[in-house]
Amino acid sequence: MIVQEGDIFPCMYFIHEGEVEKWVTDKGGDKKMISLLSTNDYFGFIPGLFPNSPFQFTYISRTVVDVVFLRFQDWQDLLQGYPEVKYSLYTAAKQLKKEMMGKN
């Protein structure tokens, strides 16, 4: 298990190599796999940009996985020099976060 649903860790993960299963727990408490992520996919977009946001899904490695991660502080340092990119990322992230909260 890479990250468990509900974990709070301000980090975004990029899959360099391998496969990662994305799982969710439904309202009845049943767990189901909703997608399979692979090379060049990513997860943790919301927790990576909003440090106190819990992960909404569990991510489990299906194969040997090589991931690269970017912590919240790293994002801030990186985006400081690119205000237009920062604005676009946060706009998209806020919309996604709003949509995700509406599903719960």
TrEMBL record:
Residues annotated as domain Cyclic nucleotide-binding: 1-90
Taxonomy, superkingdom: Eukaryota
PROSITE patterns: CNMP_BINDING_3
Cited Pfam families: cNMP_binding
InterPro entries for the chain: cNMP-bd_dom (IPR000595), cNMP-bd_dom_sf (IPR018490), RmlC-like_jellyroll (IPR014710)
Official protein name in the record: Cyclic nucleotide-binding domain-containing protein
Organism of provenance: Parnassius mnemosyne (clouded apollo)
